[in-house]
From TrEMBL:
GO cellular component, as recorded: cytoplasm
Name of the protein this chain belongs to: Urease accessory protein UreD
Keywords of the record: Chaperone, Cytoplasm, Nickel insertion
Highest taxon of the lineage: Bacteria
Pfam families assigned to the protein according to its UniProt record, in alphabetical order: UreD
Assembly notes: UreD, UreF and UreG form a complex that acts as a GTP-hydrolysis-dependent molecular chaperone, activating the urease apoprotein by helping to assemble the nickel containing metallocenter of UreC. The UreE protein probably delivers the nickel.
Source organism of the structure: Flavimaribacter sediminis
Length: 287
């Protein structure tokens, strides 16, 4: 006989949650970047596809849960040792589903050593209605290292007719170079997200947005190329700070597809610039 549970009993059931930790370390061996550390626990997996060139190691971060909801927690730790180079992306867009309690937590700790280079290029973060997300990205750079990152975010898939009305997003980044703070970013959206995105000083009605940050000694040389590639809803700035130089690109779009079409040429150019000719955007980014 089937038994039914009353609401009180359902409320006391402990929901299954996703957790995981992934650690990746790379170093130079015989003048090539090789795997030094690989640790995988829970839903966090890391794979190394065939490299595009001998200039850098390519790595793919995978969440085997297929998405996150309230109470889930993933932790990533990336270490690029002296003079090594790596390009890190994700297998697919990360999805944050409706939360029935709690906040999904994602934490990334990144270290890039002297003369080393890292391209942190995750695919889009897709936010579903009533999702709840807290994410932190902490980056430690040497004064001679180079770092390229992108973080694109989509509020509902336009092609699927999805609308995000309510959500909670807390996104915190800290990038330090030689101990000095070179970039700090805090994005916080809560409540009526649809109304917030309509504001001119937030997204001006767009549902997809992205930020690119490039930190390197000669990053200013890429500014003119970026401005030529930037669409009408994107802008790039070269900023000189006490801790060093950086380029920051901001863009918005009306759909995830439109956003990716803007991002891809910029990231292709920047990846080849910081890693070297012959090494462009990861193949997983192909439309």
């Amino acid at each position: 006989m089937l038994q039914t549970l009353d609401k009180t009993a359902v409320d006391t059931i402990r929901m299954q949650r996703t957790g995981g930790t992934g650690r990746l370390g790379v170093r130079v061996v015989d003048r090539a970047t090789r795997l030094a550390t690989l640790y995988q626990e829970g839903a966090c997996k890391i794979r190394m596809p065939s490299p595009q060139s001998n200039r850098a190691l390519d790595a793919v971060l995978i969440n085997t849960a297929g998405g996150l909801t309230g109470g889930d927690c993933l932790n990533w730790d990336i270490h690029v040792a002296e003079n090594a180079s790596a390009v890190v992306t994700t297998q697919a867009c990360e999805r944050y589903y409706r939360s029935i309690g709690g906040v999904a937590s994602v934490n990334a700790s990144i270290r890039v050593g002297p003369g080393a280079t890292l391209c942190w290029l995750p695919q889009e973060t897709i936010i579903f209605d009533r999702a709840s997300l807290s994410r932190t990205i902490d980056v430690e750079l040497d004064s001679s290292s180079s770092y390229l990152m992108v973080e694109p975010m989509i509020f509902g898939r336009k092609a699927m007719g999805e609308t995000v009305r309510q959500a909670y997003i807390a996104d915190r980044w800290r990038i330090r170079r030689n101990g000095g703070l070179i970039h700090a970013e805090d994005l916080r959206l809560s409540g009526d997200v649809a109304e917030l995105l309509r504001k001119a000083n937030v997204a001006d009605g767009a549902i997809a947005l992205a930020t690119i940050v490039l930190v390197s000694a000669d990053c200013g040389d890429s500014l003119e190329k970026l401005l030529r590639l930037a669409g009408p809803r994107a802008g790039a700035s070269h900023v000189r700070a006490a801790a060093g130089d950086k380029i920051v690109v901001r863009m918005v779009a009306d759909s995830g597809l439109e956003l990716r079409k803007q991002l891809a040429p910029m990231l292709e150019m920047l990846t080849a610039t910081v890693i070297g000719p012959g090494h462009g955007l990861p193949k997983l980014w192909n439309l």
